[in-house]
Amino acid sequence: MITRAEGAYLGAVRAFQNPMLDLLHKRHAPLVVSMLSVVFTVERPTVPVADAHTEVGDALDQLRAAGYEDNLPVGSARDLCRQWADAGWLLRQVVDDDVEVYRLSAHAVGALEVAGRAGGVRARVSQSRVRTLLDAVERLAQDADPDVLVRMARIDAEIVRLKVELDRIQRTGTVDEVDDEVLLEEAENVLHLVRELPADFARVAESIKAMQRDVVLALRQDERPTGEVLREYLQRGEQVMDATPEGRAFAGALRLIGDPQRLDELSDQLDVVLRHRFTSRMTPTQRAELAELGRRIEHGLDQVFTAQREASYVITAQVRNHDPLRDREVDDLLRDVMGGLQAWMPSARRGQAVDPLRRLPVAEVDHLRQTAGELRPPQPPEPLADWDDDAGPDVSSDEARAWGGPQYGALGAHLAGFADEEGWVDLAAAFEAGPESLRRPVDLLGLLEIADRHGMTETGDVAYVEAVRPDGTRRRFAFGGVTTRTKDDDD
């Protein structure tokens, strides 16, 4: 029989096997926590592998230059990042543009939150924290009690209390002000609750990815009929959020915080809080965390939704491209490789050279073609047709000019003649007032070029003009209205 002390000890051993506590228990835990918190932020949840190695290397150089050489581990930034990935603190994945990135695991996010709370403001047993606890217990009791009469009595009591409060406010026209110290305690309690969100969102995303791996593994094993596998796993791919306990809990929370209107209300409420005088007693970090609460929730939602989309895509692609024979061959090959490594490793010595595979095995081919193919085409190509440069229709110089570029000289004279006494002219009005020979689409571009050289002013309105091509067809154009000046100030 296990004693109470032995049970407590075994439970603690299992707890410290968690990668989160393992990270905080290491000798170089301060370095790991500081590096991960510097490289990964709320706005930057994923970092390309090469960039992460460079940033960690630069940070290590700065610490060595500051005199912390004895407190740093041995190895390059690349080696450290690989160690952190092997320990379960970093996750490597390939994004859509074939770039390999690092992101924090749920264990690392939890460790950073624990370290942040331990190094920040100490949590106090305040009125706000006790009230949060009592409110949670009250809601739990209400949800657990199925008695209709008790529920009705509670609702009636709440209505009476609110009615008394409303009558008092209507009678006095004032609202009781809350002391700044109480408001500060409530804000600290909110920040305490907010710091739990990133790890919760990360755990949901990782549980979805774990379910995805289980589904793909079951598909590759091919132990059941294909039709049954297709029906079951396509359904799980569509309902991936309901397939894990964390996903079901997140779906319940999503019904509360996933409404865009509720998030907008949260943003307005935070603006009211941040404008209050008590926030001046908070540290800049606390005020920033409070202001970023909405963005942190939106980022967590996006993280889970991204994992859900990727899982659905991978499961669907595996079902569509599932080839039992090919998958079995790959599995057999991998087992042969692992078996060879297991046989070689016990007798191998550190630094022992390995003979490389210098040539590939010869393929077993029954018969090879012995004659080369005929490289010459079966018949020569058709001869090129003779081209007569003078065979086309005659085009006069006036016709060619009509289809040519802008007539800058005529356009400049037209602008000067259409300008007011101070030399200002509206470009759209000048274009509409010109003859059809100056209202081609290219002439509109020419007017804009002339206005740009003389300096033009945008009116902020949208101008509409009708251009006429040389063949008589018309085209309507819209552009930002501008005015320009046809003469300088000293003219």
What does this 3D model show about the protein?
The chain has 491 residues and is mostly helical. Among the domains are: 13-119, Arc Repressor Mutant, subunit A (Orthogonal Bundle), CATH 1.10.10; 196-324, no CATH class; 406-485, no CATH class. Helix content is 59%, strand content 8%. It is built from 20 helices and six strands. The strands form two sheets. The protein has a three-stranded antiparallel sheet. It has a three-stranded antiparallel sheet with strand order 4-6-5. A hairpin with a 5-residue loop joins strand 5 (456-468) and strand 6. Helix 6 (106-119) runs antiparallel to helix 10 (197-221), helix 10 (197-221) runs parallel beside helix 15 and helix 11 (226-238) packs antiparallel against helix 15 (293-320). The protein is extended and about 110 Å long. It starts with a helix and ends in a 6-residue tail after the last strand. Mean pLDDT is 76; it is low at 120-126.
SSE string: HHHEHHEEHHHHHHHHHHHHHEHHEE
Distance between the termini: 107 Å
How many helices?
A: 20
Q: Which band does the percent of strand residues land in?
A: 5-15%
Biggest beta sheet summary: 3 strands, antiparallel
Low-pLDDT segments, ≥5 res: 120-126
Q: What proportion of the residues is helical, as a percent range?
A: 55-70%
* Average residue-wise pLDDT: 76
- Please provide the count of β strands: 6
Shape: extended
Strand order of the largest sheet: 1-3-2
Class computed from helices, strands and strand pairing: mainly alpha
- What radius of gyration results from the CA coordinates? 37 Å
Topology record:
Layout: H1 4-16, H2 19-25, H3 29-39, E1 46-48, H4 49-65, H5 77-86, E2 90-94, E3 100-104, H6 106-119, H7 127-144, H8 148-172, H9 180-194, H10 197-221, H11 226-238, H12 245-257, H13 260-274, H14 284-291, H15 293-320, H16 324-344, H17 397-402, H18 408-418, E4 424-426, H19 427-433, H20 441-454, E5 456-468, E6 474-485
Antiparallel strand pairs: 1-3, 2-3, 4-6, 5-6
Helix pairs in contact: 2-6, 6-10, 10-15, 11-15, 18-20
